[in-house]
Each structure stands twice: as C-alpha cells, then as structure tokens.
C-alpha cells in the first residue's frame, strides 16, 4: 500500500425524510466514516437543499447537498462508497480527485 495521500472532493446528497437526524448529524457520521478509511477532512461546504434535474422518485424531488474535501490513500474512495452504500441517510455519493 502506498502511504501517499491524495486529495478528493466528495459530494453527498442526504435524504433525511422521516428521520429525526439533522443534516449536521448525518454529516458528522460521514466524517467518522471518512476517518475510518484513513481520510482527513479538510473542508466542508453545505450547499443546501436543491431540486433534482431528473426525478427518479416522485416522493423525493430534492435533497440537501454537501461538498466535503478530504485527503486519504488511493483506496479510500472505494472504501468510503462501500461503507456508505447501506446508509439510508446518504442518498448519493460522488467522489472525484481534486
């Protein structure tokens, strides 16, 4: 494994319909998962609620978007996606190299 950290920008779409969790609580959970995959959060930007351009679920026409910049090993994006795959509060995850 390489010990060189790379920079990433992740965009998360949070779905907190019918849940008592706030967006900040969901974000704290995501930050913990990033730390579990040996990542370090460098910046967080909350975009707020936006409507989807293409609606796939008529009951969910928009959600909260958050950008998270983090650094970590090359394996961290795949590990992060896998750990968040079953999290019902994280609707979508997009990760790109920064």
Report on the structure:
23% of the residues lie in helices and 41% in strands. It has a 4-stranded antiparallel beta sheet, covered by helices on one side. It is built from 2 helices and 4 strands. The protein has a single domain, classed as Ribosomal protein S6/Translation elongation factor EF1B (Alpha-Beta Plaits), CATH 3.30.70. With 98 residues, the chain is α+β, with helices and mostly antiparallel strands. It has helices spanning 23-36, 76-84, and strands at 6-14, 40-51, 62-72, 90-97. The model has no long low-confidence stretch (mean pLDDT 92).
Could you list some keywords that capture this structure?
98 residues, alpha+beta, Alpha-Beta Plaits, four-stranded antiparallel sheet, 4 strands, 23% helix, globular
Ordered list of secondary-structure elements with their pairings:
Elements: E1 6-14, H1 23-36, E2 40-51, E3 62-72, H2 76-84, E4 90-97
Antiparallel strand pairs: 1-3, 1-4, 2-3
Largest sheet: 4 strands, antiparallel
For this structure, the quaternary state is single chain
User: Widest sheet: strand order?
Assistant: 2-3-1-4
CATH class: Alpha Beta
Per CATH, which architecture?
Answer: 2-Layer Sandwich
SS content category: alpha+beta
SSE order in H/E notation?
A: EHEEHE
Percentage of helical residues? 10-25%
The CATH homology group name? Ribosomal protein S6/Translation elongation factor EF1B
Low-confidence stretches: none
Please state the CA-atom Rg, rounded to the nearest Å.
14 Å
Q: Which term fits the overall shape?
A: globular
Number of domains: 1
- The whole-number mean of residue pLDDT values reads 92
The strand count comes to 4
Per DSSP, what share of the residues sits in E-state strands of 2 or more residues? 35-45%
Please count the helical segments. Answer: 2
């Amino acid at each position: 494994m390489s010990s060189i950290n790379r920079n990433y920008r992740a965009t998360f779409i949070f779905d907190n319909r019918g849940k008592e969790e706030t967006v900040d609580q969901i974000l704290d959970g995501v930050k913990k998962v990033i730390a579990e995959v040996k990542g370090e959060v460098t910046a967080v930007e909350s975009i707020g609620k936006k409507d989807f351009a293409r609606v796939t679920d008529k009951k969910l026409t928009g959600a909260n978007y958050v950008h998270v910049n983090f650094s970590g090993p090359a394996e961290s994006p795949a590990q992060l996606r896998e750990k968040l795959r079953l999290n019902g509060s994280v609707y979508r995850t997009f990760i790109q190299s920064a």
